Amino acid sequence: MPSTPEPSQPAATAHHYSVIVVGGGQAGLSMSYYLKQAGIDHLVIEKHTVTHTWRSQRWDAFCLVTPNWQCALPGYPYRGNDPHGFMKKDEIIDYLDGFIAMVDAPVLEHTEVRRVTPRPQGGYDVFTLQGQFSADQVVVASGGYHAPIVPRMAERLPAGIRQIQSSEYRNPQALPEGAVLVVGSGQSGAQIAEDLHLAGRQVILAVGEAPRCARFYRGRDVVDWLADMQYYDMPVSEHPLREGVRDNTNHYVTGRDGGRDIDLRRFATEGMELYGVLEDYRDGALHFSPNLAASLDDADQTYNRINAGIDKYIEKNGIEAPPASVYVPVWQPDAERTTLALGDAGIGAIIWCIGFRPDFSWLDVPAFNGRGYPGHVRGVTPHDGLYFLGLPWLHTWGSGRFSGIARDAGHLADLIGKRHAGYQRAA
Length: 427
Known about the structure:
Elements: E1 16-22, H1 26-38, E2 42-45, H2 52-56, E3 72-73, E4 76-77, H3 89-103, E5 107-108, E6 113-118, E7 124-128, E8 131-140, E9 147-148, E10 162-165, E11 179-183, H4 187-198, E12 203-206, E13 216-217, E14 220-221, H5 222-228, H6 264-269, E15 273-275, E16 278-282, E17 285-288, H7 292-316, E18 339-341, H8 342-345, E19 347-352, E20 356-357, E21 386-388, H9 405-426
Parallel strand pairs: 1-2, 1-8, 2-5, 8-21, 10-19, 11-12, 11-19, 12-15
Antiparallel strand pairs: 3-4, 6-7, 7-8, 9-20, 13-14, 16-17, 17-18
């Protein structure tokens, strides 16, 4: 793995900054890029090291599920020779290392923010393990995936079964012998199940309600079609689901080996065992919901619906393209299997791939709804000088991705700059 360029380390005695950015991932570094351009003094505080998650929470065969041309961090677009390919883990890290070096952000690493509170006179106090700071404005750029979700039933499973969360998975060889139960079929679950399946491991997949999409359709990557259709420019305020889209599970697809569909039905014809949602463990057996057929059907309906939208776009614009098609299931479950005796299954490991919960408990500002999600409009909260950046669907589909972070960071930087100028005049 390439070494991370050493970011500048500001002195801990310089307590006040115009802006403090919490989080040193692609969002926090993008914010720093624009603040440096504007000449606004700031500090990025990172709990671990910059872009830590990309280095420590991805499996060995991980690759992007979006084409390389969508890697468009501010001032640092993809410059490789395979814009329609999918960068692998080491290539992603190389790309990020170049971005880190280019931005040269003022970063304080290995520093956990323990509390952020409003100051009576305006601005915010930021308490960390390295001391106390203050800022006129604060940007929360720590993402929305903090606490891995593992159900309490896991505590009752036999101690001899190794249990890990998706962020801990590395490769099939690192797991003990026996079948592997993968719980969840979102992007991580589906890709990890595929990784294990291709390695010849027996996989039991508890299928969730995640949708799927085609990798390629009518001669092009579906992402290319959707970009032309301006789907990625649609703000959350114009999406049919409005803010509800933020709760959606990502479509499963892969960029592996040049990109392809993930078809769980085909995996079933090759020996992968599919069940519905895992509900409980009791009396020595795993218990599943009888919803496997419905989940597979719903995923396929989404797949075909996206392709039908592309068909309409092609027809409306008179575009020459290969013929349209509709996915026809290659496998159907004979019946819903709702129990699996653990002693008969030979399961040696379980991988929990059911997502993460946000944890903003350190932010002592009443800015959250009943589900712990921050209230904001395009990252701007009702609280003066407090912003969020890098959350899924903060503004558009690309808000939490390499493709859309620049637009969001630039927008917030403009607002921060105007407020900063007001502070300067008042001083």
